[in-house]
Design goal:
heterodimer, A: 124 residues, alpha/beta, Transcription Regulator spoIIAA, six-stranded mixed beta sheet, 6 strands, globular, B: 185 residues, alpha+beta, Heat Shock Protein 90, five-stranded antiparallel beta sheet, 6 helices, 46% helix, 24% strand
Chain lengths: 124, 185
Amino acid sequence: MRNLVIEPTSKTPKVILNADLGIFEITGRSIPEDAIGFYRKVLDWIEEYSKNPLTDTTFKFQLEYFNTSSSKCLLDIFRKLERMHKNGHKVSIRWHYDADDEDMAETGQDYQALLDVPFELVPV
Amino acid sequence: MTYSYYKNMQLNNIIFVYQGEVTADLVSSILQMIENKLEGEGEDRKVKKRVFNVMVECLQNVYHHLDALPPTDPSNPIKDKTALLMIGREEKDYYIITGNHVLNDRIPDLKSRLDRINRATKEELKQLYQEVLTSGGFSEKGTAGLGMIDIARKSGQRLGYDFHPVNDRYSFFSLEARISRIVDK
């Protein structure tokens, strides 16, 4: 399948979804007014990918800021990964955050509590 | 006249004020400007992040809600999507105030949501956040009340609010969020 790369802007993160190299990353800040519009392509890509994924998928998130409209879109992404996990694929989520940033750690814990998929908090 | 504006702003520790139409571009510019200002003045990183986060939610909240107003309504006291945005820095707190017109019909719902948020403990806010996040019926504008819960969580203080009656259909809604400048190390 085609790789998806979205360059970052002041309001949207960098996205790399590369099944050839096994790189799945969303990094930067995610504060668009229309988060649903931004994440549609990402969700579609993951949906397509989940039909025939690699033996091991590690998805990296490293967000500096995100707004509440992005938070629902992130949950939608996590749910898709959770479904892959439940279907027997090896999937893990790594939630990277600035070690000083308690709020971002707490948000990671919030998601961790809601999901049934390996979800690791990675202070950096 | 100018001097009295200046003195008044200084007295109230206002570092930024805007009155006018709120567009997505304007919100971006304000965020950029305040972020640079916080950066340049060497504010604590944690405080800076919280202020920025709360600012994003407050400004986008106004931006989204203004869209819901019919500007052509003859009883609408404003003819365009205007609002008030204000940021202040006191010795102990930053404060972010937004003001915009709302239809009176929306007041009971807004008020009950704000009261519920203000009554909630830290733990209850966390639960409420998760509840709203996982419930459906979110998408209309991608906001659905999560914004105010998030503002309250990041602020850690009660949200101030007021509905000032304008006419029989509209009121002026103001919301104030405070962020402490004192961080526990």
